[in-house]
Amino acid sequence: MTRGSVALGVAVAFAACSRESARSGPPPSLLFAWRGQDVPSLTLAEMRKLGDERVVVSDPHEHRSIELCGVPVARVFDAAFGPAWRGAEEVVATCSDGFRPAIPVKLFLEREAFFAYARTDTSDFAVQEGSSKRTNVGPYYLVWKARGGDDPPEPQWPYQVTAVEVTDYAARFEATLPPAEGDPRVLQGFERFRTACLPCHAINGRGGVVGPELNYPVNVTEYFAGPVLRKWIEDPAQVRHGAKMPRPLPPGEESERAIDEIVAYLGAMARRKMRPPGP
Predict the structure, then answer these.
(1) How far apart are CA 234 and CA 57, in angstroms?
(2) How far apart are alpha carbons 241 and 20 in whole angstroms?
(3) CATH number of this structure's domain 175-269
């Protein structure tokens, strides 16, 4: 392929996606931080100059293939952070609903991710969740390009993304690390908790804010009886009618061990309370 044909292809995609984004106007700038320090943000126009694309994804909410307009995450990170981001550990996305997932940097090096900003098949930038709920996913929806084969699915598809931080876990979430002790379940529970629970819940003020803080000033194991807490982690609907919290773990024998380990971690953190930052 010649340089001219590549440029033409980018121009065609740029024009097509321009029509899509014009429906609702440009979204706000995407904010960035590097290990706790703010770095300059990027507008959508600035990101699109890095290479606009129409990308097909296997959307986990609609359970089908959809086409979106987006910009490759790797190009955006190169522009925002320079090449140093490739040597960091995690990318923490901040979403407007309080969800804060942490995604390993290595995943972005292995797979193609995009900051999507519009759909090509609908006038709104939303996804259908269930039979009736339609959720706005703007300003940015972090998606993964569809691939063939039997590769495992990507762990996180955060939407309503407003900011991104590239960091190292120990520096960003030191307050959530468990105390040193001999029980191997605690460390394994910490690994499970940071993936399944920390995007929505905080420990000592670090983590998501969709759900309640679980350690300070009172640890969840200190007010939830053991059997009830286990039921809550397994399936919140068993404890509270109409619970909005989804099941954090898949059902089965493996989930029983995972619950044991998460409860062990939470119990250990009751001995490591730290006042969250701020008022």
Answers:
(1) 30
(2) 40
(3) 2.60.40.420
